[in-house]
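Example record for the data management plan.
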Amino acid sequence: MTEYDLIIRNARIHDGLGGAERRGDMAVHKGRIAAVGDVSGTGRTEIDAEGQVLMPGVIDIHTHYDAQLTWDPTASPSPALGVTTVVIGNCGFGIAPATPDARDTLLANLSVVEAMSLDSLHAGVDWSFESFGEYLDLIDSKRPFPNVAALASHSVMRTVVMGADGSERAATADELQRMQDLLADAMQSGAIGFGSSTFENHFGAENKPVPSRLAEWDEFRAFARTMGEAGGGIMMATCGDRMDVPFLGELSDISGGTTIYAPMLHFSNQPDRAIGIARACAEQRGQGRAVFAQCSCQPLSMDFTLASAYPMLTIDGWPESAPVEQLKAAFADPKRRQRIREALKVPSGTRIFNGHWSRVEVTIARDSENASLEGRTIADIATERDADPLDVFFDLALSEGLETTFTAKLLNVEEDAVGELLSMDGNLVSLSDAGAHHTFFCDAGFGMHFLGHWVRELGVFDLASAIVKLTSEPAEVYGLTGRGSLIPGNAADFILIDPDLIGISKTQRLKDLPAGGERLVRSAPGLRGTWVNGVQVFDGEGYCEVTGPGDVIRRDPRQLTAAAE
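Corresponding structural encoding:
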């Protein structure tokens, strides 16, 4: 009689490929799926699923765990939110390669553009590497809980080669060649591709543009040629208004690989923007170019105080970061208020907040006399008081010493439009930003939200097709061979969920980052367990006391070429 390491019995099995749900068992042996269906034999461990849904683990293709993985192999909170594979290096932000003289600049830029505590980064990052290959070796040695695939980071390479000039000017021919050499080395070491950003809202230290924003188009073409020589792969870019979809198609032609547009979010004041991007990507695919877009299934929401109001920083007239007393004076100034008010009257595609006060609510009031305002929007309070919403916003914050916590739903709010985007072929459900923006939001549980909200509550997707969007589709586009589906021979990356309960909780604030840094986290009611390569890492309540089973997914040229084809 065959003996397996693990058998899950009596499950509602979804294979991740869109096949019909089937009742049965799944056996796991040596980290791989051994059998699916009516499994005979025994397991060293056997679990009765009690009719709950067994599905592949969520593949999160847009995370920023580059730094965190050097001190936290669990990649918290992602495995506790159903994620079994993460892709890092997105937007061209990371920490490898890292020569000693570049490290402070890398962390300073990362702390600003991804809203991470600089003290936590300095206290936590393990610099036991210089090259990209040594970085992957370090992550592997930490024994990560999820599988990890890495993109080489454009802004990092610019910083290593150009220093502070990386945020000031175009590269010289010699500098570009040196960056191409770094990319070639990263690809040879196992990077699955290249991440970059030309997004107008991406600023680093001292409010300077992130280095990749200074790259000329020929720099991108040069990197695409380097990737082509390495066998192709993924080129993802956070695009803003500067970089368009046809140019991504050109890069796909040059590299022979796949290009990814991010972020595709619905703008209330530009209703044709996102759907236009999606159609442009589909047009490129129709011409034989592998161009896809990353699309969020959640409203882009941020928690903030006016002491650090990240969503508002790009409004004309908004004061730059300063001590609280200086900010108080700025927010009390009638002339500055009027300048901000006038700016908000003109919608802008490069701003993430455009004056929708019905989407800004009081989340936590510092003073007990304002507790009744919690959960109410600024627009509602302003109507009640017959006052201008901007004045209500500033006056409340000032009365509480800028300690009032607000939540703003910024983008991706109209669900009819968002649902259309999510349903389109080629739009990848993504954009969690897991590991970043610690004090503003936690969208790492996007997969659980997708299953709870878009499947159970709204009925826009059936369960089988929703699971495809979270698992086998990103695995196929990113060339993650042997991941994303429950078929014999594949890696045993899977989760067990109660479809009647699955969802995402409200945020909770923790102070568990290095140096006491704060972050927001969420939990996933209805998630019964997470397994990576056959090892359970989350049991529905907390992380399991195991050696991290995750693989560092390294790609060789043959795999890259096959994925592109």
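Summary line stored alongside the record: The chain has two domains: 58-299+412-484, 308-410.
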